[in-house]
Amino acid sequence: MREDQAREAFRRTFAAEPPSALDELEGLTPGDFALVARRAKLLDERGSGALVAMLAAEVDASRAESAGGSDSEGAALPRDLGRVGAIPHGTRPQNHIPYRLGF
């Protein structure tokens, strides 16, 4: 995404003027903005600096994933780590029995 596109995406996604630090990020995608918007809403985060830091973390995660990134144990890290409801394909037990939470 070009610099002007990233600035416009920041304005539209977060309803705020993008800080100059946004221009330093290369490799942003519309999906990065969508993911950070969901995460920021969940964390009640509105600061532009924090939003740019979260976007930078997504760019780093994308680069690590494309370079075959792994954790300290050598296992591949899923990109959606920490997403609510994220269950990697094929890991849900076949005999999964749904349960209700009591609230």
Molecular structure report:
This protein has helices at residues 3-14, 30-43, 48-66. With 103 residues, the protein is mostly helical. It has a domain at 3-66. The radius of gyration is 17 Å and the shape is globular.
Low-confidence stretches: 71-77
Helix content: 40-55%
Number of helices: 3
User: Could you give a short account of the major beta sheet?
Assistant: none
Shape: globular
Compressed to H and E, one letter per element, the order equals HHH
What are the key terms here?
3 helices, 103 residues, mainly alpha
Topology:
Layout: H1 3-14, H2 30-43, H3 48-66
Brief summary:
The chain is mainly alpha-helical and 103 residues long.
